[in-house]
Amino acid sequence: xxxxxxxxxxxxxxxxxxxxxxxxxxxxxxxxxxxxxxxxxxxxxxxxxxxxxxxxxxxxxxxxxxxxxxxxxxxxxxxxxxxxxxxxxxxxxxxxxxxxxxxxxxxxxxxxxxxxxxxxxxxxxxxxxxxxxxxxxxxxxxxxxxxxxxxxxxxxxxxxxxxxxxxxxxxxxxxxxxxxxxxxxxxxxxxxxxxxxxxxxxxxxxxxxxxxxxxxxxxxxxxxxxxxxxxxxxxxxxxxxxxxxxxxxxxxxxxxxxxxxxxxxxxxxxxxxxxxxxxxxxxxxxxxxxxxxxxxxxxxxxxxxxxxxxxxxxxxxxxxxxxxxxxxxxxxxxxxxxxxxxxx
Length: 344
Hints:
Low-confidence stretches: none
Shape: elongated
Number of strands: 6
Mean pLDDT: 87
Distance between the termini: 132 Å
Strand content: 5-15%
Number of helices: 12
Number of domains: 3
């Protein structure tokens, strides 16, 4: 039969257990204290602006898909932070690792916290791209190739007349496709807004037809004050069932909008295409360019005029006429100007 432990043995075991618990608690407390001290030091270092920090802002690029380690290493190499490991550690501890944005930023030297804030919540440097009014979608896509801050992702050429020409501000690293989508969305928003306030009894029924006519107006005149008048002439002709007889529609049927660099031949005027409005008694099949906002406004609210004809007047503008006889006189004047200038 086993002997029962004597009271002294029980007491020693109890004391050892108590000492173990007290020691473990002390170690845990020391560990927690060390962790708190380390975390406080990390945060202090992260938030502190070094006393010798100075200098101008630095342009810092965050390529699309960059990870925290890559960003921290490059910040260290560029002299914007002193310790990449601390920057990474605090950023992760604060749950901010996924907050960086792609783009190019103007970064002011300062604390690591301020560097993070500028990259995560600051505004990227934007570069302007101006799409000229009246160029085709194919020409627009080619123009994007000259913008070195855009990423060439080999975008498909958008449908003709679906882009709004204006100046767009783009961050470095934006894809060409993304900018084209922005341009298309801008045109959709504009036509939706203007459509509600269009003039009554226009000789077209859809927004697509409005864009087609606007593209013809855009190619006919580059003078802003004339767009309403040119639109008024075309609207009058459509109401009467007359052909538009617009030279740019001939060119589009031949070259899809690329310049021909010469006068139009009679054989080309006589050629039937889906765009040649000397031959078809209606709007072209598609737009012949991307019209600007002013041309779209003009066809939705054209000038009230009785004019049915117009021709170049030699000053960059046009002479308008209500009758064919008056128009023929204006054409004769223009032909004389062409001869005097050696144009054929």
